[in-house]
Specification:
Length: 118
């Protein structure tokens, strides 16, 4: 990912990686690297929020990095019924996407939600 930004000049990087480190506060080496790449190269990093939710502080690293765009998942009513045997009232309902507040900014994440793949 760093090679793509530094050496190849990409503008947007989309990643679906993560985990729950012991101190899940968005202030670690990887989060600092992402903030530096955003500041120095003007790149937008889009990172999945993960599937550890919906409890408090369940967005995994690196989705809590200060300036990344973290994305939660919404699943269609039809997919809830077909894939999970669940009935939901809305056209799209939140998947158990994690939620958290960023340590430095107190901004809540995920930043946005988008339809998940069926």
């Amino acid at each position: 990912m760093t090679d793509l930004v530094v050496n190849r000049g990409v503008d947007i990087v989309n990643m679906s990686i993560g985990g729950l480190p012991q101190q899940n506060d968005g202030d670690n080496v990887r989060a600092r690297l992402y903030t530096r790449l955003i500041d120095q190269y003007g790149v937008q990093l889009v990172i999945s929020a993960g599937n550890e939710g919906p409890g408090i502080n369940t967005i995994g690293d690196p989705g809590l990095a200060d300036k990344v765009l973290s994305v939660g998942a919404a699943v269609s009513k039809a997919t809830w019924a077909a894939n999970y045997g669940s009935a939901v009232d809305k056209k799209y309902a939140m998947f158990p996407s994690p939620r958290a507040a960023r340590a430095r900014t107190a901004a809540f994440t995920p930043t946005i939600t988008a339809p998940a793949r069926p």
